[in-house]
Amino acid sequence: MTSRSELETTPSVISPAQLAANRANAQFSTGPKTETGKAKSSLNAVKTGLTGRTVLLPSDDAAEYERLLHAYEKELAPTGQLESDLVQSTAEMTWRLKRIPALEMAIFAKGHIEFASSFDQYDPSLRPGMIELQTFTTYEKQLRNLQLQEARLARRREKEMTELRKLQAERKRKEVEALDQAARRYLISKKNNTSFDAAANGFDFSVAEIERYLERCPPAWIERVLSTQSRNFTRGAA
After folding, report:
1. How many angstroms separate the CA atoms of 229 and 191, rounded?
2. Using an 8 Å Cβ cutoff, are 23 and 41 in contact?
3. Tell me: the pLDDT tens digits for 152-207?
4. What integer pLDDT is reported at residue 57 of this predicted model?
5. Domain extent for 188
6. Which one of 141, 170, 199 terminates a domain?
7. How far apart are the C-alpha atoms of 62 and 229, rounded to whole Å?
8. Is the CB of residue 7 less than 8 Å from the CB of residue 40?
9. Structural domains of the chain, count
C-alpha cells in the first residue's frame, strides 16, 4: 500500500481496474490489511488527485489533456507569461472538474464489487439499490469531498477567467493607445517627408500594422491629426 507521504506527492490511481491492482499490491505492503481499510486508503488519493500539484493521474489521457490545453490557448490567445499561466491554470481546473464524475462512478463501481454478496438474502430487484446505499454510506466522506472540491475548482476557474479577461482588456486598451500615437507620428512624418522608425520612437508596431490601423480610421480623424500638427507648427514658427 502506498504510504501517506507518497500520496502527498504522487496522486494514487483510482480507476476501477487500477483499484484492483492496488489491492493486489497491498498484499506486499505494511498498509491496511482488511478490504474496508484498503478501500478507504486507496480513496484517500481522491483529494490529492484533485488538489495536488501534479495535473495528470496515471490513468489520465495525456493526449486528451494536451488537446484541451491547446484549445484553451487558441481560444483565449494569451500574450505574455502571466496570461499564459492563467490560461494553463484555467485549463487545469477544467480538466480536474471533468475528472470528478469519473471518480464518483469509480466509487460506486467499487461499491458494487465490494458489496456484491452483502445482500444475497434479499429480493434481486432490491439488491442494486441496497448496494448503492451501502456504498454511499461507506464512502460518504469521499463523495462529499468530491462535491466540495468541485465547488472550489469551479470558483477558482471563474476567478482566474475574470482575472484573465481583466488583464487582456487592459493590455488591449494600452495597445490601442500606443498604436494611435504611432499612427499620429507616422502621418506627421509622411506629411513632412521625413523618415519614420517605429522602434526608435518607442513603438513595437511595424509600418504595415500602422498602415492597416490607418485604413480603419475615419478620414476626418486623419485630417484632424494633420491639421492639428500644422497649427502647432505655425504657432511654433511665430
Report:
1. 10
2. no
3. 999 999 999 999 999 999 999 999 999 999 999 999 888 888 888 888 878 888 88
4. 77
5. 173-237
6. 170
7. 58
8. no
9. 2
Q: Give the distance, in angstroms, between the CA of residue 233 and the centroid of all CA atoms in the same chain.
A: 53
CA torsion 171-176-179-183 (nearest 10°) is -170
Please state, for a pLDDT cut of 70, what percent of the chain lies above it: 73
**DSSP structural state of residue 12:** P
Cell of 78: 494569451
Chain segment 89-144, per-residue pLDDT in tens: 999 999 999 989 989 999 999 998 888 888 888 888 898 899 899 989 999 999 99
Q: Are residues 95 and 202 in the same domain?
A: no
Cα separation, 112 vs 107, in Å, equals: 9
Write the single-letter amino acid at 122: Y
The CA distance from 57 to 39, in Å, is: 18
Q: How far apart are CA 129 and CA 127, in angstroms?
A: 6
* Grid cell in block for residue 99: 475528472
Percentage helix, strand, coil for the chain under 3-state DSSP, each rounded to 5 = 75, 0, 25
Distance, in Å, from the CA atom of 46 to the CA atom of 225, rounded to the nearest integer, reads 63
- Cell numbers placing 47: 483529494
* DSSP symbol at 206: -
Q: Are residues 186 and 112 in the same domain?
A: no
Is the CB of residue 57 less than 8 Å from the CB of residue 13? yes
The residue type at 222: I
Q: Which residue has the cell 486508503?
A: 41
180 alpha-carbon distance from chain centroid: 34
Nearest to 69 by CA among 55, 49, 52, 50: 55
Look at the chain and count its residues: 238
